[in-house]
Specification:
The structure holds three protein chains of three kinds.
Chain A lengths: L3 H34 L5 H29 L3 H30 L10 H24 L2 H31 L4 H33 L3 H16 L5
Helix pairs in contact in A: 1-2, 1-3, 1-4, 2-3, 3-6, 4-5, 4-6, 5-6, 5-7
Chain B lengths: L3 H43 L5 H5 L12 H32 L3 H16 L2 H15 L6 H25 L3 H9 L4 H30 L2 H6 L19 H11 L5 H32 L3
Helix pairs in contact in B: 1-11, 3-6, 3-8, 3-10, 4-6, 5-6, 6-8, 7-8, 8-11, 10-11
Chain C lengths: L2 E12 L2 E12 L3 E5 L6 H7 L10 E9 L12 H7 E4 L10 H11 L5 H14 L3 H4 L12 H13 L5 E5 L7 H14 L4 E5 L3 H7 L2 E6 L2 E7 H6 L4 H7 L5
Chain lengths: ~230, ~290, ~250
């Protein structure tokens, strides 16, 4: 028994979550650009967006608490509020990682040329975020479950980048600083993809009302299918 | 646990239950039987007198022949006048007591006063009427004095019945009306009275049939044993059915019993007929205003 | 926000017993204000003070001021009660339609306030029923007895009846306590709509209801106003220990 006011507010909250996610995606891509291009111009913009994302999280969280306090939601209504509260934390973390990436953006170029795999990885991670948010807005569990498969790709990208960086670092100790930065940025991007998966997990919860167990078995199954090459 | 002894009690209880149930049944049957015998007796004795002539001719010499037109008309006049006096006064008094009297103590005093008025024997009312209307107010031995006396007699009945009916209207309806900005009078006229009209009219009709049947008060204030013509004005004397029955059965000799019982049957018909009207009114308004 | 009703030093006595102690409260215009508190805390007494329905109760004495936005004090000795109640409508705990037709229920109040024209009356009836979101359910049976309606419909009819005199303020004394959850939800939706045009004050036993419909909440206890503030604040972080104990169900 939820009122129209409650439904309107939830719709509004979903819209704000979408806006927040857009900001997070933009922040990540700006930060990665700044790092790859060794360009300081957008770093302050990244910081500003990160702050905005954080204040959005605080605001949405407050509104979610209001909804719980005022409307005492139950069943789906309760899960929706809970999911929104969890998802905004994930999105906020993405903003934080983008901020960390921007912090690593150097002031001058070095001679390591390594942009391509990193750019590809950031695009992949961002697309994962987009799909996660889409699945949330559409409450599409199938779509959410596809995320885990793609997360594996991001994982393997992160593994290959770190291996490659390690090779550079072993070749020449002068590359250690840059190599470490590459590894860190790749790690951050991998974490961002993980947070996208977390959102997918929440969509699962939203749809089935069950905690992670369903998801875990599905994930394992998916992983196995992926490894054994039975996917798509 | 239920012991053997208690089981015995159960048996005894069942027997007792059966005994009292039978007893109550018999009591109820006796009452119904008495009523049937009583009404049946009047009908059987009086039915042979029933004819158009009986209702349209004046009583003959010594009441030994003729009809009942003069006492019938007298009773109808009497009831009309009683209705005229007692209804407005009684209903408005009831409205005052239950709607306007805000002091709780006074409300209780009113209730006691009205209740006691209803319990006063009718002959006392007769004496009062004789002293007040006939003598003190110099109205004489007349239809007016008699109907005023009867009005006093039935007033408590009208007031009590109206009060009960008005009290049965839920307070929530008055609140609703008041909260809409209606004055107390508007609330009373638009809601309280219409919704209680069935109870009030039942009370009025019971009061009128009581008035129709009373003998003692009118005997002292205006009814006469014999008149050849119906009363010409409210100041003239009159004949009335109950007094006519009293007169024919005790004061004159040789009156055929069918004439006496015919008059009794006519009175019974009037009273029963009015009760019937009361029932019809009640059920009509009940279905119109129900809550 | 504009203050619609200013309540100052309101005391209510029933004979020797004091029912409300020095209530001071500002009610905002075009919003829903909820009054909550345990049974016997004086919340119904309080709301009845706002349109002087307490006057109908014997031995009830009220001191203090209830000042409307236009500056009039409804407890002014010169105040016309009819005008007060025309401006401040009230809906009661149990649905109490008149035992008349649906049309007559609504038309009564405009009629006693002087609307004679049949067409005008019909317009008022339709408009009021529409505002109370019940028009579509009853438009084909306006001449049927109001008591044929379900409890929830009757209560909305009572709201429509109160709206028919075009009041500025609508008082509701536990309007849903006799209704099932679905009828309750309909009334709540309606209240949220009505606040755009009216100032609504609702007494409720049901805290969730206060949460769902109200903007501000006042908590009464033993005739005292304990706390008054934004509903979200009262529900999430009440300032008073008593409020906390009441809304968490840990009272006595």
């Amino acid at each position: 028994m939820t009122s129209k006011a409650y439904k309107n507010e939830i719709d509004q909250l979903f819209e704000d979550v979408a806006t927040m996610a857009e900001k997070a995606k933009k922040t990540v891509s700006l930060a990665v650009d700044a790092f790859i291009n060794v360009d300081q111009t957008n770093v302050s913009e990244v910081k500003r967006l990160d702050d905005e994302i954080y204040s959005m999280e605080v605001m949405i969280e407050k509104r979610c608490i209001d909804q719980i306090a005022l409307h005492a939601p139950l069943a789906t209504d309760l899960r929706v509020v809970f999911v929104i509260m969890k998802v905004i934390t994930d999105i906020n973390r993405m903003g934080r990682y983008a901020n960390n990436i921007a912090d690593l953006a150097g002031k001058q170029r070095t001679d390591i040329e390594f942009e391509y795999p990193l750019l590809a990885m950031s695009k992949k991670s961002i697309s994962l975020v987009s799909e996660a948010i889409d699945s949330l807005l559409e409450k599409d569990v199938e779509k959410a479950n596809c995320l885990f498969k793609k997360d594996k790709e991001v994982d393997s990208m992160w593994a290959s980048i770190s291996r490659e960086s390690l090779t550079y670092m072993m070749e020449d100790p002068r590359h250690i600083t840059k190599g470490m930065e590459f590894i860190l940025v790749a790690r951050y991007l991998e974490r961002i993809a993980d947070h996208a998966c977390n959102i997918g997990k929440r969509v699962n919860y939203l749809g089935y009302g069950d905690t992670a167990q369903i998801f875990e078995t599905q994930k394992e199954e998916l992983t196995e299918r992926y490894i054994t090459g039975k996917v798509g | 646990m239920i012991s053997e002894k208690q089981t015995d009690n159960l048996e005894l209880r069942r027997k007792k239950e059966k005994f009292f149930f039978t007893l109550f049944n018999i009591c109820g049957l006796i009452v119904v039987l008495l009523l049937v015998i009583f009404v049946g007796y009047v009908v059987i004795m009086g039915i042979s007198a029933m004819s158009w002539d009986f209702f349209t001719t004046t009583p003959g010499v010594g009441m030994r022949s003729g009809g009942i037109v003069t006492p019938l008309i007298g009773t109808v006049y009497l009831m009309g006048l009683v209705a005229l006096f007692a209804i407005p006064l009684g209903v408005l008094t009831a409205v005052y007591i239950s709607e306007y009297q805000s002091n709780r103590l006074m409300g209780r005093v009113w209730k006691v006063v009205v209740g006691n008025l209803a319990g006063i024997p009718s002959i006392v009312y007769g004496l009062l009427g004789l002293a007040m209307f006939v003598t003190a107010l110099n109205l004489g031995f007349s239809l007016l004095a008699a109907s005023l006396t009867l009005s006093l007699l039935v007033l408590p009945i009208v007031i009590m019945a109206s009060r009960e009916a008005i009290a049965a209207v839920p307070q929530s309806i008055r609140d609703a009306s008041t909260a809409l900005g209606a004055t107390k009078w508007q609330t009373t006229v638009h809601h309280v009275l219409p919704y209680s009209i069935s109870g009030i009219s039942t009370g009025i009709i019971l009061a009128l049939s009581r008035a129709a049947g009373e003998t003692a008060p009118i005997m002292l204030t205006g009814a006469v044993f014999f008149m050849s013509l119906p009363p010409s004005s409210i100041n003239s004397k009159f004949m009335a059915l109950p007094y006519h029955i009293y007169g024919t059965s005790t004061q004159s000799y040789g009156v055929p019993s069918e004439l006496i019982f015919g008059a009794a049957l006519a009175l019974l018909l009037i009273v029963l007929g009015m009760n019937l009207v009361a029932i019809v009114i009640r059920s009509t308004f009940r279905s119109k205003y129900r809550w | 926000m504009v203050t619609k009703i200013k309540i100052r030093d309101l005391n209510v006595f029933f004979g020797e017993k004091q029912a409300l102690n020095d209530i001071n409260l500002d009610i905002e215009e075009n919003s829903v204000t909820a009054i909550i508190g345990p049974s016997g805390c004086g919340k119904s007494t309080f709301i009845k003070c706002l349109n002087r329905m307490n006057d109908t109760i014997r031995e009830c004495k009220v001191t203090g001021k209830v000042i409307l936005r236009d500056g009039t004090d409804i407890y002014d000795s010169k105040m016309d009660l009819v005008r007060v109640r025309k401006n401040i409508g009230m809906v009661f705990q149990k649905p109490n339609p008149f035992p008349k037709s649906i049309f007559e229920n609504i038309a009564f109040a405009p009629r006693i306030h002087g609307v004679k024209n049949k067409k005008d009356l019909a317009n008022i009836v339709e408009e009021s029923l529409r505002k109370a979101a019940i028009w579509d359910e009853v438009k084909d049976r306006l001449d049927k007895p109001a008591y044929d309606l379900s409890g929830g419909q009757q209560q909305r009819l009572c709201i429509a009846r109160a709206l028919a005199v075009n009041p500025e303020i609508l008082l509701l004394d536990e309007p849903c306590s006799a209704l099932d959850p679905i009828a309750t939800a309909k009334i709540e939706e309606l209240l949220v709509e009505l606040k755009n045009e009216y100032t609504v004050v609702i007494v409720t036993h049901n805290m969730q209801q206060a949460g769902r419909v109200s903007h501000k909440t006042a908590f009464f206890y033993m005739g005292d106003l304990i706390e008054y503030g934004d509903t979200a604040q009262i529900f999430e972080n009440p300032k008073e220990e008593l409020t906390e104990r009441y809304i968490t169900g840990r009272m006595g």
